[in-house]
Amino acid sequence: MAEQDPISAIEAAALRSDRFRLEREGDWQRLDAIVTQMEKGRLRKLSDEDVLALPVLYRTVASSLSIARETSLDAATLGYLEALVQRAWFVVYGPRVSLGSWLRRFLGGGWSASVRAIWLDVLMALAVMVAGTLVGWLLVAHDPEWYHALVPGQFADARVPGATRAVLERTLFTDQSKEPLAAFAASLFGNNAQVSILAFALGFAFGVPSLMMLVYNTAGFGAMLWLYHGAGLTTDFVGWIAIHGTTELFAILLAGAAGLHIGRAMAFPGERALLDAAAEAGRRASQVMTGVVLMLVVAALLEGFGRQLINHTAGRFGVGGFMLLFWLGYFFLFGRGRADRSEAA
Asked: How far apart are CA 303 and CA 294, in angstroms?
């Protein structure tokens, strides 16, 4: 067989590339025009036909790109198709709003609407946390040995049954952390985040493990409350907790409620399919958990900085009370109406 002339081979490749382009260029140009309009935020200028045709055109051009790569078409055509497919992918599958827009919508009512939507789970989780606190108090009141089982070692130190009032008072008004405040706040955030994430993640088991997590963690609080009450330091201890606890405990409450919400949806899906009910509850609960992370950051800063720098009970109550009113107002008063209708939809 005679060897093909190099010039003829080049001409044949160019002819093949031109034919390939002519056969499909109309779809490419239409997709390019649609994507350009959407990138410029001019979605309203697109016709219904163009919007409906977008996914089909995307798949067609992606197929053209695959063929172009396999047949080694000219570099210009290949580069154009690669760029167009990449742009179209972000339009078809990419995020629909910018981070700033999402954050404004989230903080401007989306988060609070999701919390209000799980109000029943919040009340159930709150009842469980109160019960856990009472259980912890009653257990150590009956047998002080329970204290060591309920209160983690890193939180006990000098705060143990039998400690004198002076020793316990020093733990409230003296910085016990050996770490710089920033590092201390980071470690507190890590510990609280672990508790919250577990309370949420275990919700898939019909919410039972989430409730158990809430009981265990508040039982430790009840045990410490019993200890300080016995030394006549109840008010000072509650103030010591309040400065960050109104945020931290609220965050843990929401995390447990979010896990319980998923568990209830799986246990009682109603007329919906189980997966549909779980998916809907999961979307709502994940939005609540996103906000929980923000709350835990605030709580860690209040505990790592505020509690150590504000060394008197009145000031701690002032900060803690303000934060509690802020969260209650934000969740149950702010963004009502339109945000709630959007959540229901």
From this structure: 14
* Measured distance CA(269)–CA(263) in Å, rounded: 10
The structure's pTM equals 0.69
Give the number of other CB atoms < 10 A from CB of residue 26: 9
CB 306 within 8 A of CB 319: yes
User: What pLDDT band is residue 126 in, cutting at 50, 70 and 90?
Assistant: very high
| Distance of alpha carbon 25 from alpha carbon 31, whole angstroms | 10
- How far, in Å, are 153, 256, 300 from residue 267 at the CA level? 36, 16, 34
Give pLDDT, residue 23: 79
Find out whether 216 and 132 touch, Cβ atoms under 8 Å: yes
**pLDDT at position 309:** 84
H or E segment to which residue 257 belongs: helix 234-267
Place of tokens 């275990």: 202
Q: How far apart are CA 2 and CA 8, in angstroms?
A: 13
3-state secondary structure (DSSP) of residue 84: helix
Spatial distance between the Cα atoms of 254 and 118, rounded to a whole number of angstroms: 9
Return the closest-CA partner of residue 41 out of 93, 80, 98, 82: 98
Task: Give the span between the Cα atoms of 16 and 14, in whole angstroms.
Answer: 5
Tell me how far apart the alpha carbons of residues 11 and 15 are, in angstroms, rounded to a whole number: 6
CA atoms within 13 A of residue 28's CA, in its CB half-sphere? 20
DSSP state of 233: -
* Per-residue pLDDT, 124: 94
Stretch 50-56: mean pLDDT, rounded? Answer: 84
| pLDDT for position 86 | 87
Cβ contacts of 184 within 8 Å, gap of 6 or more:
177, 304, 308
